Amino acid sequence: MPNNSSVYLILWVLLQLLVEVNCQMTPFKPTIASKFFYLDVSVPFNTQQLSWQDLSNTNILPSHSGAASCSGGANNNILFLYGGMSSDQTMALVYTFDSQNIKWSIPKFMAVNAIRKSDLTGVCLNGIMYLWGGMSGDLFSNDMLILDTINLNWKEGSLIKAPTPRCQYGATLLPNNNIIYLGGNDENLTFDPKTLAIDNMGTALTLSEVYIYDTIHDNWTTKKAVGKIPPNRAGFSTVL
């Protein structure tokens, strides 16, 4: 018959094995503290038991908010992350994430003539990333930055008939190579650029007008919405 110390040792080993097996079986669930994770939607999945994968150990980015991202590169398998607000002065303007090699990098541009913006939406088409509006420091913007994610160069789109400066709008790509923009917040939204504390929420912009950017001809048009117009809004997602 084993002595007490042997019994305790066996129980301790069994407990450790149970904890280890339980940790391996417990699925990862994103939290506010989670920095970088993904969900594979290319395979069937259960919405009640989402199979999230944690990649936080690969993360090299400083803490930030309000950045824009989309897929680009020659094979459309590189995640491009642009801009955002950060108290860390070392934060680069653009980062890339290689989804094949699971690696973050800072791309090298021949010349960087683009400004840092935040609270905007990035829309990609054929390796080109369109970055309209957003915040530049504490100023609202309505310029169109265009990033060629294949050749790594910048240019600017037309401002003629562009929407008024705004951030936190909705945007998505249309089938005819156009981008639709709607809603958002304008200069009525004020905040402290150092602490990011909001002083005045302002009034979200109307959805009675939508704005179309033609990526082929580099021009803007405004369309009037009809039907039952939803309430003004900002900070929402738009998906076609």
Q: What is the helix/strand order?
A: HEEEEEEEEEEEEEEEEEE
Cα-atom radius of gyration:
23 Å
Q: What is the CATH architecture descriptor of the domain at 65-224?
A: 6 Propeller
CATH topology of the domain at 65-224: Neuraminidase
Kindly estimate the percentage of residues that lie in beta strands according to DSSP.
25-35%
Report the uncertain regions. 5-25
Query: What is the residue-mean pLDDT, rounded to a whole number?
Result: 84
- What is the subunit arrangement here? single chain
The total count of strands amounts to: 18
Largest sheet: 4 strands, antiparallel
Which strand order does the major sheet show? 3-4-5-6
Shape: globular
**Number of DSSP helices?**
1
Which bin fits the share of residues in helices? under 10%
Distance between the termini: 71 Å
Description:
The protein is mainly beta and 240 residues long. The chain has a domain at 65-224: Neuraminidase (6 Propeller), CATH 2.120.10. Helices cover 9% and strands 30% of the residues. It has 1 helix and 18 strands. The protein has one helix at 4-25, and strands at residues 37-39, 52-54, 68-72, 78-82, 94-98, 103-105, 122-125, 128-132, 135-136, 139-140, 144-148, 153-156, 170-173, 178-182, 190-191, 198-200, 209-214, 219-224. The strands form 6 sheets. The chain has a 4-stranded antiparallel sheet with strand order 3-4-5-6, with no helix packed on it. Strand 17 (209-214) and strand 18 form a beta hairpin. The longest helix is centred in the first third of the chain and has 22 residues, at 4-25. It is globular, with a radius of gyration of 23 Å. InterPro entries: Kelch-typ_b-propeller (IPR015915). Keywords: Kelch repeat, Repeat, Signal.
